[in-house]
Amino acid sequence: MTLYGENRPPADDRPTVQVTAVTWPVEEPEPTPPATPRRPRRLRLLVAAGATAVMLAGVAGAGAYAYAGDVPRGTVVLGAELGGRSRAEAARELRAELDRRAAALAAPLTVRVGERTAEIVPGDVGLTVDVEATVAAAAKADAHPVSRLVGSRSVRPVVSVDVDRLHTALQKVAGDQVRKMTMPAITYAGTTPKVVHPKPGLALDPQRSAEAVRTGWLDGQPVTVPLVETQPATSAEEVQRLVDELARPAVAAPVKVTTDKGSVTIPPKAIARSLRFSADETGKLTPRVDVKRLRAALGDDLAKIEVAPRNARMSISGGRPKVVDQGRPGQQLDAVALARDLLAVLPDADGREVTGQLKPAQPELTAEKLAGLGIKQKVSSFTTRFTGGLSSPRSQNIVTIAKEVDGTVVLPGETFSLNGHTGERGYAQGYRDAPVILDGKLVPGVGGGTSQFTTTLFNATYYAGLEDVEHKPHSYWFDRYPPVIESTIFWPDLDFKFRNNTPYGVLIDTSYTSSTITVSIWSTKIYDSVKTEYGPRRNITTPRTIYLEPGPSCIPSNGINGFTQDAYRVIRKDGKVVKREKFTWRYDAEPRYVCGREPS
After folding, report:
1. Per the structure, how many domains does the chain have?
2. For this UniProt entry, which residues form the secretion signal (predicted)?
3. Which of 259-291 are b and which e, b meaning 16 or more Cβ less than 10 Å from the residue's Cβ?
């Protein structure tokens, strides 16, 4: 009897495997002799063995055919037959098929994000077929030999995409459909808790977006990209519980800290300033005591029990930086233990007392460390001019903030915050009333003039090549400042920050005359030069005239044109441009303010 392969696909050129059935001889008693002579037993065994060899040879031939190449026979990707080929041959064939489909693959893909539809060019987001990964997937054969012999299968291509570029493109499509989570918050106004209840956000998930586009790209249909609702980890009910069980009772009474050198009382106002409720990126709200803020709130009271460590100091002497103060160790409350123990008693109405442990405290900056920071030469310097001499309140504010910053050392990798360094700049800190810009006009305000120092410091760090972290130019341009490359400051909302992105320490040196303020940066010079290239001014607007009620709060002005301008920081090293950074700002036209009634 002859057996043939079943379910054979049409137009299949694979050879048919023919197998002959064989019955193996069994030892039995001798039967009655037949009418015709039987073959000898040895001959019958030889015939059977020969038939078996034929069968095995056929099976071996079929196996060799089925397992030829790295990719199983019958495997198709995008209509291209890759079966029976080596990986290299399959890759060449697939690339050829992709070339034939190049126009279709480059066609814009329609995506739907929420209620909006747009087209995305595949090349703009790195959307492509990964040939090597697709061939590797195709080579993963079905384990059953018969499947390799007579089966067929279509393998989906492996698609890759640049997740970040796709996310950027989809954000533009989503537009204002996306909303950030409203993070929960608990703050204090004086000693009264103020609450921000959480609200869910609606956003694109970069990985889910990429998966949707990878899966749907080649189907010829618009791809729907989901907007994902995200709930803050701390619910509104949990926020209210924190208020009722911690935030409100925390400031109901003082807490006494006792040490072996005496005690100090923490009043509710100091507790309110140091008790922080911080939300992480998931919206989980966690209470903690910020001991640094607590120390600032207690001020001189801690001097009764603590000796603060003093950092080593450096100043410019004879045109060279020198260590002028070796610093000293101190003795302070164990901050970790104090924060833990204080947080534990704040919910309680009674027993509001903790035991503080005094520990040796080393200065952050020793003379040895300071000397090894590579502060050896002037890297940059910038000067701005002011009027009125040193007797005017504005000039005095400039000098006050300059003295606070003078001698500051910024360690490698550290970010300097001007607000963080000076703290609040009010009457108690020696600042006086002088003109400030508030709601678009000049009005008397405490600390007026500190923006001029901020601009001077910003330019000094800018021309030192240090990293700009945060700054905001003025609403109006004043000709005492360079356009675009300038910065205002306002406690506590507007800050100036830079990062020391060098392997060396940075020393800020300030000096002044009766009409100038200068900031110099000392460190180790890294760059050949740092210069500014300006683009032309555009979108120029002219000021309008506004009449104000005359009085001490009215400050007249002549008005200034508004404009938009680009400034490029060009940094050169070893004779080449290594960095070119663009800064752009739009100045409003400052109105011409007249203290008097408008003419009829």
Report:
1. 3
2. none
3. beeeebebbbebbbbbbebebeeebebebebbb
